[in-house]
Amino acid sequence: MHTWSERISAKISDIGFPVRRLLPSRSARHIGPFIFLDHMGPAHFNLTERDNDVRPHPHIGLATLTYLFSGALMHRDSLGSVQRIEPGAANLMLAGRGIVHSERIPDDIRSNGMAVEGLQLWLALPVELEECAPAFMHYGSNELPTWQQDGSRIQLVLGSAWGRNSPVVFPGEALYAVVEMAAGTTLEIPTGFAERGIYLASGSLSLGGEHLVSGELGLLPDTATPLRITAREPSRLALLAGPTPDAHRILDWNFVSTRLERIRQARDDWQQGRFPAVPGETEFIPLPTRG
Considering the entire predicted model, what is its pTM? Predict the structure, then answer.
């Protein structure tokens, strides 16, 4: 009987609001192209303290994928994109050779006391596209396939599964779905991926008699045998899957590359102000000092 091949607990930090980091970890550096997974919040914000806005900062060599459960964020980037993201929608940003962006809490969310909660993921770009032109795309919740299946509500954010296809354009093979399961229901996990994982945002799941609890990331075995998870209580999860990465990636602050010299160049470019600016933004996050 198959069960979780690994269960990973979050590393919790406070960056002006609580963040649970699941990837990378000592047990797993990636799930397919997914090399970074943060669970943000839930957090409440006020109108007077703005230190919890994410000020402009750079990226190279990756794509960011932002998805919210509640609240809203305002995205701005050096391409001139200005986009509010709300629950059930997806923001996909290709950093490629370099992009700068900020993510701020809108005033109406602050004044209403609405909790902001969601997931942010980084995906390694295929090696041949590490230095592609940067781009930004937004997909509304009504654009993403969403349906009821065996007591579960499934929203397919990225990739193809369960006979459906997401319109989100990512230049590589990846699967990302958000699932809400009623207590006592079961769900068969799609096969055909070398690496698969389930992040349990809330609730409790079991696989082969072994439980996964809220805040844990469960890695699934590489098997063609169908796997079925069962919700022990109402649960919300994110399914991540993809092929084994095409090369080793170096992660340094917000930079991702297969080449150490490229990371060093990006660090120097940010420190010397050579990255493009976000129109209308004057703040920025300084380059961290290495220990």
Answer: 0.96
